[in-house]
Amino acid sequence: MNIPITNDVLKLVGKNANKVENASLLLDKYCEHKNWPNKANHSAPVNSLNRVASLLRRGNPASVNLHKLRREATNTLTDQFLATGHAKETVAMTAARLAIGLSDGIIQNGGISLDRLTGLPTIWGSAIKGACRNAALWKIKETEDPQQKQQFTSLFWKVFGYTEDDLVSIPKFIGEPLSSDLNGDSAGMIYFLPAYPLQDANVEIDITNVHTGKYYSTGKSEDLKNEQPILNYFPTIAKGALFTFLIALSPRGRAHEQAEAVLQYAIQTLQTALTVHGIGAKTGAGYGWFSINDEITQARDTERKLAIKEKIESSKRASTESDPQLFQEFSELNEQASRALVNSFQYDQRTWKKEGKEADEVYRLSIFKYFTEENTTLYLAEKDKQKSKFMNALSNLASHFSQQLP
């Protein structure tokens, strides 16, 4: 491998860009050349794609950290949208390889959609919207019931919007007359956000095999007999990758009287697009199909509700104050009783008492404050010991109340 790099950039990225940990940057800027400096290198495309696949392979430390950062950012964004009550999430797994963004990049028909910041596989919102729009149109076209067809058409215009050209071509395609109240251009009421992986999304290299390349150049039938197979490599997202898809109502959509119906139609169309029509390139050859994972979607919803509950409770704990009157009670305890009191918090919060005074947040905070600020004898004696039950308990209480140990 020999990639031309200027000396100043070489210091940053290393020879042949070996220091680059972002797959998007590697694929866009540091591909191996097919004809450089003066020697043909037909393996250059597959070499470059294999570097990208290797960088994103499961277990790669750089990939693990990036996946964690991307997942945290995705969860934060999803939580913020869902908290409005005007968004819906669907979790889906690739049921086959996914070829997305093949025309992007400097390798001809060898691109892949990667997030610029993390370099991880991504399905852009525009691709999702296009797939949904296609699925919705076919659904309308195949619907025979006139009333249902009219209902789907009305929701279609609201979800996807339209241009003047759409108002001419789409009614012809679906076989439904244009409503008299539609004219000009109009934006859709749904935001289609990018879909990001929730876990490792490996990249695998696939091939197309051109057998009669000369025929496609000349068009002569005799050249069909002259087979010279040429392997063309392209990257795909592996089967089994888990993605979260998020759609949300726009401000105009939220204000619409049919807001809930529009959102529900959009999420149903998304699920149809993923499971029936596929997304990305080569769907006719079996690529780009997904299976909806309702269990994970529900689990994430439950986890999100618990997180919101914990956030509310954490906010309440932040305003909790210790009770000096309890300090007198604690001061009358001997060493054994003091240790027993504190050590009851040494394990996970799920093991803490749910009833009695030990379940009271004021009582718990007072314990923490007393033994770390008022009477520090035991704290100082245990502070530097490894595997101290007493210190584990105080650490748990500190975390519970967002406090710092002195």
Structure commentary:
Helix content is 48%, strand content 11%. By secondary structure, it is an alpha+beta fold. The chain folds into 3 domains: 55 residues, no CATH class; 258 residues, no CATH class; 81 residues, no CATH class. Strands 1, 4, 5, 8 and 9 form a 5-stranded antiparallel sheet that branches. Helix 2 runs antiparallel to helix 3. The radius of gyration is 30 Å and the shape is flat. The mean pLDDT is 88.
Concise summary:
Helices cover 48% and strands 11% of the residues. With 406 residues, the protein is an alpha+beta fold. The protein folds into three domains: 1-55, no CATH class; 61-318, no CATH class; 320-400, no CATH class.
| SSE succession | HHHHEHHEHEEEEHEEHHEHHHHHH
Most strands sheet: 5 strands, antiparallel
Rounded to the nearest angstrom, the radius of gyration is 30 Å
Total discrete domains: 3
Mean pLDDT: 88
Share of helix, binned:
40-55%
How big a fraction of the residues is strand? Answer: 5-15%
Indicate the structural class. alpha+beta
Q: State the helix count.
A: 16
Q: Termini, distance in Å? A: 56 Å
Poorly predicted regions: none
How many distinct beta strands?
A: 9
The dominant shape is: flat
How is the topology of this model organized?
Blueprint: H1 7-13, H2 23-29, H3 44-55, H4 61-82, E1 87-94, H5 125-142, H6 146-160, E2 161-162, H7 166-174, E3 186-187, E4 190-192, E5 196-197, E6 203-210, H8 213-218, E7 230-237, E8 242-249, H9 251-255, H10 259-277, E9 290-292, H11 294-318, H12 324-331, H13 335-343, H14 361-374, H15 377-382, H16 389-400
Antiparallel strand pairs: 1-8, 1-9, 2-3, 4-8, 5-8, 6-7
